[in-house]
Amino acid sequence: MQKKRVEVAVGVIEKAQQIFVCLRGEDQHQGGLWEFPGGKMEAGEDVFSALKRELQEEVGIEIYNSSELMRIEHDYADKAVCLYIHHVEDFSGEAHGAEGQPSKWVAVEQLHELAFPEANKAIVELLQARQN
Ligand SMILES: Nc1nc2c([nH]c(=O)n2[C@@H]2O[C@H](COP(=O)(O)OP(=O)(O)OP(=O)(O)O)[C@@H](O)[C@H]2O)c(=O)[nH]1
Ligand SMILES: [Mg+2]
């Protein structure tokens, strides 16, 4: 059987060398792990539009610009994902868990201490390598 494959817009929100992360709900795919906020792209939507919509809904910020950091294709046992990861520095509003989810700012050098979904390993590596 073909696995379901979803396209996801993901935002690495950065302010003062810190990155904003949220905790995924236990009822969600990869629940109980930290994430860079974002969500599934709708049909016909480009990455920036999806990210703008998702970050407004999940984090309560308005973004004005973003730049592509990387793209990751990953196969979980139950689902295949294509993550379009964008860097977001140009935004207004105070980032918070707008859907009631726990959230926090984390220093880039501490990102590897958090439990993320497997697909996120490469993102953390890239962000930490960029610092050096
Ligand atoms: N947002 C987000 N999703 C990720 C990350 N890493 C990762 O593997 N994913 C996977 O990407 C998929 C889609 O993300 P999502 O659950 O946020 O989608 P969504 O906001 O549209 O959720 P919904 O289905 O509740 O409407 C999930 O299967 C999730 O496990 C990440 O860092 N951030
Ligand atoms: Mg989401």
Overview of the molecule:
It is a single chain. With 132 residues, the protein is α+β, with helices and mostly antiparallel strands. It has a single domain, classed as Nucleoside Triphosphate Pyrophosphohydrolase. 18% of the residues lie in helices and 37% in strands. It is built from two helices and nine strands; from the N terminus they run ββββαβββββα. Strands 1, 2, 3, 4, 6, 7 and 9 form a seven-stranded mixed β-sheet that branches. It has a two-stranded antiparallel ribbon with strand order 5-8. A hairpin with a 2-residue loop joins strand 1 and strand 2. The longest helix is centred in the middle third of the chain and has 13 residues. The termini are far apart. Bound molecules: 8-OXO-guanosine-5'-triphosphate and magnesium ion. The site of 8-OXO-guanosine-5'-triphosphate has 19 residues, from strand 1, strand 4 and strand 7. It catalyses: 8-oxo-GTP + H2O = 8-oxo-GMP + diphosphate + H(+); 8-oxo-dGTP + H2O = 8-oxo-dGMP + diphosphate + H(+).
CATH architecture: Alpha-Beta Complex
Q: Write down the secondary-structure element order.
A: EEEEHEEEEEH
Instruction: Give the biggest sheet.
Output: 7 strands, mixed
The overall average pLDDT, rounded, is: 96
- End-to-end gap: 44 Å
What small molecules are bound in this structure? Answer: 8-OXO-guanosine-5'-triphosphate, magnesium ion
Helix content: 10-25%
3D shape: globular
Q: What is the helix tally?
A: 2
Beta percentage is 35-45%
Instruction: Give me the CATH fold name.
Output: Nucleoside Triphosphate Pyrophosphohydrolase
Low-confidence stretches: none
Domain count: 1
- The beta-strand count equals 9
CATH class: Alpha Beta
Radius of gyration from the CA trace? 14 Å
CATH-level-4 superfamily name: Nucleoside Triphosphate Pyrophosphohydrolase
Family: Belongs to the Nudix hydrolase family.
EC number: 3.6.1.55
Cofactor: Mg(2+)
Protein name: 8-oxo-dGTP diphosphatase
